[in-house]
Write a structure and sequence with these properties.
Layout (H helix, E strand, L loop, with lengths): L1 E2 L3 E8 L9 E8 L13 H5 L14 E8 L5 E13 L12 H12 L5 E11 L4 H17 L5 H10 L1 E2 L6 E4 L7 E4 L12 H9 L1 H12 L3 E6 L2 H15 L7 E3 L16 E6 L12 E5 L4 E3 L11 H15 L2 H4 L14 H19 L7 E5 L5 E4 L1 H8 L5 H8 L1 H10 L3 E2 L3 H8 L1 H7 L3 H19 L31 H17 L10 E2 L6 H4 L4 H22 L3 H14 L3 H16 L4 E2 L1 H16 L9 H9 L3 E5 L2 E4 L13 H24 L4 H5 L1 H19 L5 H30 L32 H5 L8 H26 L4 H31 L19 E10 L20 E8 L2 E8 L9 E6 L3 E10 L6 E9 L3 E7 L5 H15 L8 H4 L4 H5 L8 H17 L15 H5 L30 H12 L1 H9 L16 E4 L15 E4 L4 H8 L9 E5 L6 E5 L4 H7 L12 H19 L12 H8 L22 H8 L25 E6 L14 E6 L4 H15 L8 H12 L1 H20 L3 E5 ...
Parallel strand pairs: 10-12, 10-13, 11-12, 19-20, 32-35, 33-34, 33-35
Antiparallel strand pairs: 1-7, 2-3, 2-6, 4-5, 5-6, 8-9, 13-14, 15-16, 17-18, 20-21, 22-23, 22-28, 23-24, 24-25, 26-27, 27-28, 29-30, 31-32, 36-37, 36-42, 37-38, 38-39, 40-41, 41-42
Helix pairs in contact: 3-4, 4-17, 5-6, 5-7, 5-10, 8-10, 10-16, 19-20, 19-21, 21-23, 24-26, 24-27, 27-29, 27-30, 29-30, 39-40, 43-44, 45-46, 45-49, 46-47, 46-49, 49-50
Length: 1858
């Protein structure tokens, strides 16, 4: 029971305190005068009676009534019902009160001159109560007023006494009738359940005033703790609105400032910083304007104003929409049917009171949905003496999937919700409507979502309950209270309200109190019960089922990976690992991980080896990195016990636990996380405490553990609370103490746990409690852990320096502070005793200190750990004699700009980045390792290049993908088109990297060529480091020294008498006693007549020995082949030969860079030669290098002319000559020399005297002066060849002749032709005027110099092997290719060569005299010979060409290749590579003209710079002899297994395997090739772009094979063969030609294998091949009718077709050549039609001629054809149509409708087939054949073998005729 009213107060106007304007109220009387003990009198009532201030009014107002609410210090609410009426006051005194200011006094006086009308002052009757019965208060105060106004004969004291002593039940739905003793009767109904607010119709009114959206805004603002201000001109409405808002918030209670009516004097309260709900009269509206953060609701205007700076979080989305719809159904039921044609008449809104309940029902439902499952997140920490309950907010949000939701997060953090948990968390208490709703109706609400009728029905049901709660007795007898008569307040002579007698009232009160004390206490039977928990959240939220299904596979992957880790299958685990890390984005996968790991801990598998530990750590880190600091999904919570379980042994007695590697996550620094974890654990322990005692007997329940566990803790608590009152005092004490010690022990446990996770492994570094998380997902933050050098963990954070001790203590202190804070909070909350708490504070620093000590040991040991997780270093295979200089340094090979290896946009496996090691050997730099991507982890990646080919080395810093640290690295670029971009592993010290660079540099640039690999091979690498190698073979050295000495002497005296000298046998020669003083044997006769000496007679013995070698040189053999003279021992020489072999340079005295033997015109004497040579650069005078066997024209080469010599040569005849000067005679001799060349040509030797050179000089060089002043006479054509000569030669521009860049037909050269063309550099031959009388002509051309070649090559390398990926790959590659101008240089060389070929072919001789005669000259001269002479297109001939033109004629290989330290500055100039590229271009255009394959060219390109062979070292024969290189082969080769010469190596290899051989080789006799040279016809050589990562460059054949025997195949293939014929070939990884050899190689290989199996000695492949060719030819001759059976060797193809290149690609991928080696079926072997270039399919060409079908049928008949995959064989009528070049088929012969067409242009081959399933049974299996097109394979079957053969032949002939 409770008092209806606590105090009755009479408040009046205080005339004495008329302040500055507003007056004040004063309490005139109050009853009872003493305060009630349980309820002191509230202060400041007088303010609330007149909230807008006490003022006097000129007329009487009608009485008003409103209820103000005051909140006392205990946050109890007092309802002050104020009933106000007006009384007249006596006129104010004229004189003012002294304490007023002067100014006011005057004012008063002024006003009192005019006698004012009578004034009325307000007086209020106030009832103060703790109950909110506004109507009862209104009636009661009204009754008192009525008694006073109408003068009823009832004692006011009695009424007031009765009012103050009236008691009513608080709740329970009682009904009570009261009477105040004035003949009145009122019925008071108390609500059934006082926890539900009472709202009568205030909520409905609020919605009427403001509308749905506005109220929702206010509702959300109130829940998220914003300030809310109501404005209205009605006080009652303010109170109602505030009450309504509070009623909507149920079951949450508003706990901030709540003042429904705020008096004017207290307006400054509005600027308080705390949230509030306040009502203010709208006359103060202007004063609320400057409030910036207050939401203002104007009830009268119906507006809600939200300031800009306030952001109100609204309800989470589906709920907001649903709430709006429900409210609209309740408030505006007509809306639904507004559009109906016949709206039902019955629909109308409920009565206001009912509508009010319906609205509240909507909000009740809303809360039930918002808070569903909240009880599953309660932690009960203490049960006795009273329950302590905490709410796990993060878990709730996580399970609801609303972690991101602003609104719910704020609500849960708010005070209201804290109160809600305290009040409703208790497990044993009375329950109300909300509890039932949340427990039982959630499922129903879920089900009814979206069904408006059902929702409405539910709302109405709830509204009924709410209504019933407020009005338990609907049929209430009416109140009977007297009302005053109408208008009584206007009576003029109203007595003032009488003074009440305090005594009487007090006596009545005392009487009542005494009676109450004697009455037995009315105990309200509280119906307590266990609060139902309702379904767990998971059960409610089963949405997105498909996501779950999808993740099942992922969870499977996670489980497998973990089991692999624990079964130690690391490679498998590694493969799944990236998938696991990706899966960790999903919550399910993270939970799965924690469960799986728990299982392994339970099975005692927590001690791991290093690699397992590493995997587990990385998974944990990945799991944690997506956790927020709140850990909503409980992942960190689940991992917490695991990180202290998993460990690894570092050394005896030192164990590292997982926690030291997972500290990098914000969650560990979040105190809320630790609290939640702590409470969760405490709850489990407390539950266990009661379970053990209570349920020992219920063992069978244990088996059904899960459901019981799911409910347990709160249930047990409620059970305990029910029993509590029945227990004995001792029992109670015991339980309290048990619980307290449980909590205490947990606190100690957690102090330990926290120190584990907060103290860094390296405590000297200060990196504690970082504020932010760790950065992005990819970093997985495991970098700090994986390499179990866990030391790097700490190092990464080494931001601060010095003062380690200070810092470590600093870390310790901060950890101690953190843990103390935590312990204080949880222990006070969970009621730990003070002594215990003090004990804890003492323990914590010790715990931390001990842990720091153990960590130091762990840290020390972990630093010593060998880094794991790194693959074993794979040793590279080395060549014989190749030795390691530096052991492998662990590096990552990073992807560069080439996309193939990295699996970029092209697809394919990501082979890079790869981790492995880089090795430095005497010959190569080798990277060998495995890809970091575990999916290709079994592959081996090798990238290497010869050290000699290194062109650029620069330091870079790379982000190696394995960890986030930037590492130092190197980028090494090689001119074999390779790039090594390596990042050193962090274990590689930077000085190791430096040593690596130094060694590399030493090896790359040895001091002397003897330091190169070709020389040092087989010596110890230490020597390789010191270039001064010991002299080997001293005898040879002395021999060569000797030669050099001689050479130096002979320059002085050329002619010596001859003595007979027999060179000693080789054995003696090898001895040390070589006669060094053999000059003594030679008597010198200077004065002999020069003419008598034949060249051969002048040799000295030592020279003679040299001569024998010189004669063996390649060039001599070639000269003899060309008929350019022989070198016989006899002196008799046929004088009619035009040329002779001169030995003038045998001692390399005239020209160091020329060979010893030279071809010169017969008529020229040696001494002339010596003089002539001075006119040419480097003394490289013109010598013959080739003669056209048909036209007898010769090709000469020389260096460019010296300025001096040139001036002499072309001096004007007219200039006066003072006498025969040196220069003059030289120029004449030069003329003679050229003339002699011309005369050598058969059709010029008979010509007359005009052939002297004098005419030449006068005519050509009439202008005087130096070269520079001579102007070029003609305009330059676009190709920089002089048009002058072009027009002379052709009458038209030579180079513009044909669109494809070949010169025009030879016939044009007939007009007038010079006998000798001198092709020279335009800059030197300026102004050579053409002279019609002469037989020679100078062709000045512009050529690029070596500098340009270098620059162009650099750009080409960057284009083909870019250092880093470019933004737009396609464009960037082609554009940079074009910028390099490489192809235009190739074009230029080819163009000049083709021109020279033309001239030679038409019978003119050509002298190529460009630059120094050893770069471009060599390129042009070699290409001319290659194009003109088929011999040079064989393997032997090409070797000879290179030896003669490049090696003997002194191309400076060492200088251009920068092979030694001296050449380092000059850089690499790939002149020879350019020549090989030109050959490659010609090879592409004429694939049948070359005996060697493209691989041969690549092999040379690679090895001419690799320094593996000695062939391409040094700059000339002279230097090679000096080093004893040229002739040592004979003696040494026996003893040494290393090939010194590349040619020997190629020969040996060629005998073993056909890798250098071109199967398409079918030359036409004597054909001169004229390739197209336009850039559009040139292709980028694939040598520049291809690579094989599986074995490194494929040019070191032994290495590539993997075994020293090149003939054997790698084992891998043999093992793979039986299982499946299919192989995946990766473009940048496999060596295509070996993994998938072309058909012929394959057959030869199979043949060899068969011979081996049969035990025969395998035949050489070449012999087999020749036999096959021979048999093909004879067969072709015998059966002339079957032409197609000849192999491609036939020359039946037209020239045009041959040149375009019907060819097998080198790799043999598309090869369709069927070599049948069985004579029976040989007739079926077919030529390949090749892939017809860019032609359109032939059928389209012919479709324009429509002929009748019959004409088109060149051959027809019936064949069985197998349908596509899984279809049967069917007989069809086939027609072969030659005209349309297609094979058509019909259903039957009569059928006109064609069923299908096979375009013959797409046919690749016809092969004999084999019968497959469903084929016609009766047919011979040889009658089957397959037709392979580019799209698919067609299987056919004829009636018999003959028919089949006939078809095959017909189709073949069709193909070959095309």
């Amino acid at each position: 029971m409770a008092r209806l009213a606590d105090y009755f107060v009479l408040v009046g106007y205080d005339p004495g305190k008329r302040g500055s304007g507003d007056g004040q109220g004063q309490i005139l009387q109050r009853f009872p005068e003493k305060d009630w003990e349980d309820n002191p009198f509230p202060q400041g009532i007088e303010l609330f009676c007149q909230p807008s201030g006490w003022q006097l009014f000129p007329e009487r107002n009608p009485p008003t009534f409103f209820v103000a609410v005051l909140t006392d210090i205990n946050s109890e609410r007092h309802y002050c019902a104020c009933f106000t009426f007006w009384e007249a006051v006596e006129s104010p005194q004229p004189q003012s009160h002294g304490r007023n200011g002067e100014g006011e006094e005057e004012e008063e006086e002024a006003s009192s001159l005019v006698q004012p009308a009578q004034l009325f002052a307000p007086k209020s009757l106030v009832l103060v109560s703790r109950l909110d019965h506004a109507e009862v208060f209104r009636n009661s105060l009204g009754l008192i007023y009525t008694i006073y106004v109408d003068g009823l004969s009832v004692s006011l004291e009695n009424v007031i006494g009765n009012l103050l002593t009236c008691t009513i039940p608080i709740t329970g739905g009682a009904q009570r009738t009261i009477s105040l003793g004035a003949g009145d009767r009122q019925v008071i109904q108390t609500p059934i359940n006082d926890s539900l607010p009472v709202s009568s119709c205030s909520v409905a009114l609020l919605f009427r005033q403001l509308g749905i959206t506005n109220v929702l805004f206010l509702f959300c603002a109130a829940l998220t703790e914003h300030k809310i201000l109501f404005l209205s001109s009605s006080y009652q409405r303010l109170t109602d609105a505030c009450r309504a808002l509070l009623a909507l918030m149920f079951p949450l209670k508003y706990s901030f400032t709540y003042v429904p009516i705020l008096p004017a004097q207290l307006l400054e309260v509005l600027s308080t910083p705390t949230p509030f709900i306040i009502g203010v009269h709208s006359i103060f509206q202007s004063e609320t304007q400057e409030l910036l953060d207050v939401v203002i609701a104007d009830l009268d205007g119906g507006t809600v104003n939200v300031p800009e700076c306030v952001h109100i979080s609204l309800l989470p989305e589906p709920l907001l929409q649903q709430t709006r719809e429900a409210l609209s159904m309740v408030l505006d039921p007509e809306l639904e049917v507004a559009d109906l044609a016949f709206p039902p008449s019955t629909i109308s809104a409920s009565s206001l009171k009912m509508q009010d309940k319906e609205i509240r029902a909507v909000f009740l439902r809303l809360f039930a949905q918002l808070l569903q499952g909240y009880r599953w997140c309660l932690h009960i920490i203490r049960i006795h003496p009273e329950p302590v309950i905490r709410f796990h907010k993060a878990a709730f949000l996580g399970q609801r999937g609303l972690t991101e939701d602003d609104f719910l997060t704020k609500v849960l953090e708010g005070m209201a919700f804290a109160g809600f948990v305290t009040e409703r968390g208790a497990p044993y208490r009375p329950i109300d409507l909300f509890d039932e709703l949340v427990a039982y109706d959630v499922k129903r609400m879920k089900a009814e979502e979206g069904n408006k009728q059902k929702i409405l029905r539910h709302i109405k049901e709830l509204a009924e309950k709410l209504y019933k709660n407020e009005n338990p007795y609907p049929a209430v007898t009416m109140h009977k209270v007297q009302k005053p008569t109408e208008g009584c307040h206007l009576r003029l002579h109203q007595k003032p309200f009488p003074h009440l007698d305090e005594g009487t009232v007090q006596w009545i009160i005392d009487q009542a109190t005494a009676k109450l004390q004697t009455a037995p206490p009315a105990v309200k039977a509280e119906k307590k019960c266990m609060v139902p928990s309702g379904p767990p959240i998971a059960a409610i939220l089963e949405r997105n089922g498909n996501a779950l299904a999808n993740s099942a596979r992922r969870l499977e992957v996670v489980r497998n990976c973990i089991s692999y880790v624990f079964e130690n299958k690391m490679l498998e685990a590694k493969k799944l690992f990236p998938a696991v890390l990706r899966a960790m984005k999903g919550r399910a996968a993270r939970h799965c991980l924690t469960q799986e790991l728990h299982l392994h801990v339970q099975q005692n598998r927590a001690v791991l080896d290093h690699q397992q530990f590493d995997f587990v750590i990385r998974m944990m880190n990945c799991c944690l990195q997506d956790c927020t600091a709140m850990d909503e999904h409980g992942i960190a919570a689940a991992l917490l016990p695991l990180v202290t379980a998993f460990c690894r042994k570092l050394s005896p007695g030192i164990t590292q636990f997982a926690y030291s590697c997972v500290q990098e996550h914000v969650v560990w620094t979040n105190i809320q996380f630790w609290e939640a974890m702590f409470y969760c654990d405490v709850q489990n322990h407390i539950r266990a405490l009661y379970l053990d005692s209570a349920e020992e007997n219920h063992t069978e329940q244990e088996s059904a553990e899960e459901p019981q566990e799911a409910k347990s803790a709160l249930e047990i608590a409620s059970e305990q609370l029910r029993l509590w009152p029945t227990m004995s005092r001792e029992k109670q004490q015991e339980l309290i103490q048990k619980e307290e010690s449980t909590v205490f022990s947990q606190a100690i446990h957690y102090a330990n746990r926290m120190s584990y996770l907060l103290l860094p492994l390296d405590t000297s570094k200060n990196r504690l409690l970082r504020s932010s998380g760790l950065g992005d997902v990819e970093s997985v933050s495991n970098s700090f852990v994986t390499n179990s050098i866990a030391g790097s963990v700490a190092e990464s954070y080494d931001t601060e320096s010095g003062f380690e001790d200070a810092e470590s203590s600093d870390v310790a202190n901060s950890v101690v502070r953190f843990i103390n804070r935590f312990v204080d909070k949880v222990c006070t909350e969970s009621g730990v005793t003070n002594e215990h708490l003090k004990g804890l504070h003492v323990m914590i620093p010790d715990i931390v200190q001990m842990h720091i000590e153990t960590l130091d040991a762990v840290h020390r040991e972990s630093k010593r750990l060998p880094p794991i997780q790194k693959p074993k270093l794979l040793r590279p295979n080395l060549l014989l004699g190749e030795e390691c200089v530096m052991e492998g340094l662990r590096v990552y090979l990073m992807p560069d700009g080439r996309e193939e290896g990295a699996g970029g946009s092209i697809g394919g496996p990501p082979l890079l980045p790869a981790e492995g090691a880089v090795f430095l050997t005497t010959y190569r730099i080798i990277f060998k390792g495995t890809p970091t991507d575990p999916l290709v982890g079994e592959q081996v990646v090798i990238r290497s290049f010869p050290i000699a080919s290194l062109t650029k080395e620069k330091k870079i810093s790379i982000q190696a993908q394995a960890d986030q640290f930037i590492q130092e690295g190197l980028q090494l670029r090689s001119c074999t088109f390779q790039l090594l971009k390596i990042a050193f592993d962090e274990e590689v010290a930077s000085d190791s990297a430096e040593i690596f660079r130094k060694h590399l540099h030493k090896l790359r640039y040895p001091q002397h060529v003897r330091g190169t690999f070709a020389f040092t091979v087989g010596q110890s690498p230490k020597q390789a480091m010191q270039p001064k190698a010991k002299e080997k073979n001293p005898s040879l050295r002395t021999l060569s020294k000797n030669l050099v000495k001689n050479a130096k002497r002979t320059i002085g005296r050329q002619y010596v008498t001859r003595k007979k000298y027999t060179p000693p046998a080789w054995e003696q020669r090898g001895s040390q006693h070589f006669p060094e003083d053999n000059e003594d044997e030679i008597s010198v006769s200077e004065e002999l007549d020069r003419s008598t000496l034949t060249p051969s007679s002048t040799m000295r013995p030592s020279e003679k020995m040299t001569m024998t070698h010189v004669v063996e040189r390649a060039c001599c053999r070639d000269y003899q082949r060309l008929g350019l003279g022989t070198l016989s021992s006899s002196l008799t020489r046929s004088k009619n030969e035009p040329f002779r072999i001169s030995t003038v340079n045998r001692m390399y005295a005239i020209c160091r860079s020329y060979p010893g033997l030279l071809i010169v015109p017969q008529s020229i004497q040696d001494n002339t030669i010596q003089r002539i040579s001075r006119c040419y650069r480097q003394s490289r005078f013109p010598v013959v290098c080739w003669r056209n066997s048909r036209t007898k024209a010769v090709l000469l080469r020389s260096g460019g002319l010296h300025g001096k010599g040139v001036v002499g040569l072309f001096k004007s005849q007219n200039a006066p000559t003072p006498g025969p000067s040196q220069a003059d005679s030289t120029s004449l001799e030069q003329e003679k020399y050229l003339q002699a060349v011309i005369n050598s040509m058969p059709h010029y030797s008979d010509a007359g005297g005009r052939n002297t050179l004098s005419g030449f000089t006068s005519a050509h060089m009439s202008s005087a002066g130096k070269w520079g002043s001579i102007r070029a006479s003609g305009r330059m054509s676009s190709y920089a060849l002089n048009v002058e000569i072009g027009s002379r030669l052709a009458g038209k521009d030579l180079l513009g002749t044909q669109h494809n860049g070949t010169p025009a037909e030879p016939s044009f050269l007939r007009q007038h032709r010079a006998s000798l063309y001198i092709i020279g550099d335009k800059s030197q031959l300026k102004g050579v005027k053409p002279d019609p009388l002469q037989h020679w002509e100078v062709v000045p051309i512009e050529v690029f110099d070596v500098r340009q070649v270098k620059a162009s090559f650099k750009k080409l390398m960057k284009a083909c092997v870019p250092g880093c990926p470019s933004s737009d790959p396609s464009v960037a590659y082609l554009r940079s290719l074009e910028d390099s101008e490489w192809l235009s240089q190739i074009h230029k060389i080819l163009q000049i060569s083709v021109l020279v070929v033309e001239l030679l072919d038409t019978g003119s001789s050509v002298l190529v005299s460009l630059e120094d005669g050893w770069d471009i000259t060599t390129q042009v001269v070699s290409l001319v010979q290659l194009l003109s002479d088929p011999y040079y297109r064989t393997l032997e001939g090409f070797r000879l060409l290179v030896e003669k033109e490049w090696l003997s004629f002194g191309h400076r290989f060492s200088h251009r290749g920068a092979q030694t330290l001296a050449g380092q500055s000059s850089g690499f100039a790939p002149i020879f590579l350019q020549f090989l590229d030109c050959v490659h271009q010609i090879h592409l255009q004429f694939p049948m003209e070359f005996e060697f394959s493209q691989y041969y060219l690549k092999f040379l390109s690679y090895h001419y710079i690799s320094n593996r062979f000695r062939t391409f070292l040094l700059d000339s024969d002279y230097e090679r002899i000096e080093l004893g290189l040229l002739y040592e082969e004979k003696g040494e080769r026996k003893g040494q297994q290393f090939s010194k010469s590349i040619w020997d190596y190629i020969d040996r290899l060629n005998k073993k395997a056909p890798i250098f051989f071109n199967y398409l080789y079918a030359p036409e006799d004597g054909e001169v090739l004229r390739p197209y040279s336009n850039i559009s016809n040139l292709k980028v050589w694939d040598y520049y772009t291809e690579e094989t990562l599986s074995e490194g460059p494929p040019y070191d054949w032994e290495l590539a094979q993997g075994q020293p025997e090149p003939a054997e195949e790698p084992d891998r293939q043999d093992t793979a063969a039986p299982q499946s014929k299919r192989r995946i070939i990766w473009p940048c990884y496999d060596n295509r030609s070996r993994v998938e050899p072309d058909a012929i190689s394959k057959l030869l290989e199979e043949l060899q294998n068969l011979e081996m199996e049969l035990g025969q000695v395998p035949e050489r492949w070449k012999d087999t091949w020749d036999k096959v060719k021979a048999s093909q030819r004879t067969e072709g001759r015998q059966e002339g009718n079957r032409t197609p059976s000849s192999l491609l060797m036939s020359s039946g193809l037209s020239h045009h077709r041959r040149s375009l290149g019907v060819y097998l690609q080198e790799s043999g991928v598309g090869s369709t050549l069927n070599l049948s080696l069985d004579s029976d079926t040989s007739s079926t072997s077919t030529p390949s039609s090749g892939k017809p270039g860019g032609r359109r399919s032939t059928s389209t060409l012919y479709s324009q001629f429509q002929m009748s079908e019959s004409e088109n049928r060149s051959y027809e008949g019936s064949l069985y054809k197998k349908g596509a995959f899984m279809k049967p064989w069917k007989s069809r009528w086939f027609v072969l149509d030659k005209t349309k070049h297609q094979l058509r088929y019909y259903d039957s012969r009569m059928d006109t409708e064609c069923k299908g067409v096979i375009d013959l242009a797409e046919v690749e081959s016809i092969t004999p087939g084999t019968p497959t399933m469903g084929a016609p049974k009766t047919v011979d299996e040889k009658a089957f054949f397959d037709l392979k097109t580019t799209k698919r394979v067609y299987n056919f079957c004829a009636q018999d073998v003959q028919l089949a053969q006939q078809w095959i032949d017909r189709i073949q002939s069709c193909l070959s005729d095309a």
